[in-house]
Design a protein that fits this description.
With 206 residues, the chain is an alpha/beta fold. It is built from 4 helices and 11 strands. It has a single domain (8-73, 120-202), classed as 3-Layer(aba) Sandwich (Rossmann fold), CATH 3.40.50. Substrate binds at residues 50, 55.
């Protein structure tokens, strides 16, 4: 969709213009917003991302998760080596060794013993390129999250909800990435919440 591609470029350019001080302030404020988000209170496994291309940096929040006396653990997405276009999630600690994937994004070195099934993630913090107040999201365009999380839309025919437990999905973005209305694609996976440096939006999925 051309409209989405043009909007994506505009919003990516906008967040790249933010100064170092603005990025640092955003990272600290988003960490505070996440600490106040109720759906994270009882979450033990939280997946997120490492900053790339001007997203909000989660470094302060990740550091807080690491220092919760072992009560919470963090995970990062890794490009799936077999199911092309999908993601795996791997445990991420202070000792994790990282490598760069084909998009020049850091990710943990693949190790089967560190894989965390997506259904064991209580919450996934997702980087957004754009969003609107209705909870619609615009990603980087690769479709990795939409494919990996398509089961959360209850369209896959599983007989029991316990077979595929859906994580809560929280989009993370700068305030300047908000638009009045996003063009929606049928494969877009809806969010449970969106967190920016200035506010938190929560949604009820139908």
């Amino acid at each position: 969709m051309q409209a989405r591609a043009q909007l994506r470029k505009k919003l990516r350019d906008a967040r790249r213009t933010l100064s170092y001080e603005q990025h640092e302030d955003a990272a600290k404020r988003v960490a505070s917003q996440l600490n106040a988000l109720p759906l994270l209170d009882n979450s033990t496994t939280i997946a997120g991302y490492l900053v790339n291309d001007g997203e909000v940096n989660l470094k302060y929040y990740i550091d807080q998760v690491w220092h919760t006396s072992g009560k919470k653990k963090f995970a990062l997405p890794v490009l799936h080596p077999v199911c092309k276009g999908h993601l795996l999630f791997l445990s991420y600690t202070q000792n994790s060794k990282l490598t760069f994937n084909k998009y020049k994004i850091e990710e943990p070195i693949l190790s089967c013993q560190n894989v965390i099934p997506v259904t064991q993630c209580d919450v996934i913090l997702m980087p957004l390129v754009g969003f609107d107040s209705m909870g619609n999201r615009l990603g980087m365009g690769g479709g990795y999250y939409d494919r990996t999380l398509s089961f959360t839309q209850n369209k896959t025919g599983f007989h029991s909800p316990s077979e595929k437990r859906a994580p809560k999905l929280v989009g993370i973005a700068h305030d300047i990435q908000e638009v009045d209305a996003l063009p929606i694609a049928p494969w877009d996976v809806p969010l449970d919440a969106i967190v920016t440096p200035s506010r938190t939006l929560q949604f009820t999925k139908s």
